[in-house]
Design brief:
The chain has 344 residues and is α/β, with parallel strands linked by helices. It has two domains: 166 residues, Quinone Oxidoreductase, Chain A, domain 1; 141 residues, 3-Layer(aba) Sandwich (Rossmann fold). The protein is 27% helix and 28% strand. The strands form four sheets. Strands 3, 5, 6, 9, 10, 17 and 18 form a seven-stranded mixed beta sheet that branches. Strands 13-12-11-14-15-16 form a six-stranded parallel beta sheet, sandwiched between helices. Strands 2-1-4 form a three-stranded antiparallel beta sheet, with no helix packed on it. Strand 12, helix 4 and strand 13 form a beta-alpha-beta unit. Helix 2 packs across helix 3. It is globular. It binds zinc ion. Zinc ion (ZN) binds next to loops. The site of zinc ion has 5 residues, from loops.
Length: 344
């Protein structure tokens, strides 16, 4: 069987929409018909070679999605054909299979345990979670990365206290989810730092209480001003730039918890004053994928979404078909988009 997929042949080049041959699901693998997938900055960074050279080219991409199980390989017990599922790069229960290979004629196209910029995918059982039909494919797709990474950083990792002060660097897809996670746990102040003027409105609708444009002056001075000169209890960085990571570190108070979520560029060092750690116990931590366990967290996020306590539809600002994926990527790079979703 053939299917359309977006393939990366060369770094920094547009994706190519190809017809690829779909393999049968092997041991521990699940064949899923994709209904929607989100595009996150990590894929764009992958296309740009942000983490260095790419030995897997050509390959497929995409790591958050939603769809319906078409077939299961030997050993799979978690899902059955017809089940509605969310797909995520974050591991849950189930088998970890080998990775599939898609073929374009005689050319091999590599893939990871899940890839989602394609009509069908052969994914590892532990990257798939059965979900209720209470959520449509586009918002369900965002459970796979944006929602889990941001909300999970607050609920599972930082576990902030009601009444605490929070700074969030970056109001993109993950940043908005950090904001709403902090609002969900009743943070008193949620101070957002982002240079994009047009993100202020959406950041505030997700629960931001203050919005600082770093182009208009030193954001640390403003954060201190808003916190009686102390800095925040919790600061989060979702941009993946050394400058904002250093700022997130400085923004936290002497017993504050700093959480780095944005993917740092390869080979660059950040600079901090270690005296704060030494002297007072300021903590610098990282959080990958919001410490999410999909089997536990996806149902809980869907329940919160249904109860109107978690905004997911509002994250989606642009919808595209697979054929226009390069346009979607350009729009994200131009900063015009909250979350772009590809619908099939
Ligand atoms: Zn992602």
């Amino acid at each position: 069987m053939k299917m359309k997929a977006a393939v990366l042949y060369e770094l920094n080049k547009p994706l190519v929409i190809e017809e690829l041959e779909l393999p049968e699901p092997n041991f521990g693998q699940v064949l899923v018909k994709i209904q929607a997938t989100g595009i996150c900055h990590k894929q764009i960074e992958e296309i740009q070679g942000h983490r260095g050279s790419d030995p897997f080219l050509p390959h497929t991409l995409g790591h958050e999605g939603a769809g319906v199980v078409e077939a299961i390989g030997p050993g799979v017990t978690k899902v059955k054909p017809g089940n509605y599922v969310a797909l995520s790069w974050i591991k849950g229960s189930g088998l970890q299979s080998g990775t599939p290979t898609y073929m374009k004629g005689k050319q091999k196209v590599n893939a990871g345990w899940i890839t989602t910029f394609q009509e069908f995918t052969v994914a590892s059982e532990n990257r798939i979670t059965k979900i209720s039909k209470d959520i449509k494919p586009a918002p369900a797709a965002l459970l796979g990365c944006a929602v889990s990474t941001g909300v999970g950083a607050v609920l599972n990792h930082a576990k902030i206290e009601a009444g605490s002060t929070v700074a969030v660097f970056g109001a993109g897809g993950v940043g908005l989810n950090i904001i709403q996670g902090a609002a969900l746990l009743s943070a008193l102040k949620i101070i957002v730092v982002d240079p994009a003027k047009d993100k202020e409105k959406i950041a505030k609708s997700f629960g931001a209480t203050h919005y600082i444009n770093p182009k208009e002056g030193n954001p640390i001075a403003k954060i201190k001003e808003l916190t009686d000169g102390k800095g925040v209890d919790y600061s989060f960085e979702s941009v993946g730039r050394n400058e904002t990571m250093e700022q997130a570190y400085e923004a936290a108070n002497q017993s504050g918890l700093v959480t780095l979520i944005g993917v740092p560029p390869s080979g660059k060092k950040m600079s901090i004053d270690p005296f704060d750690v030494f002297h007072s116990g300021k903590r610098l931590t990282g959080c990958l994928g919001g410490n999410t366990y999909p089997d536990r967290d996806f149902p809980r996020y869907i329940a919160l979404y249904k109860a109107g306590k978690l905004k997911i539809d509002e994250l989606i600002t642009h919808r595209y078909k697979l054929d226009r994926i390069n346009e979607a990527i350009d729009a994200i790079l131009a900063g015009r988009v909250g979350r772009a979703v590809i619908e099939f």
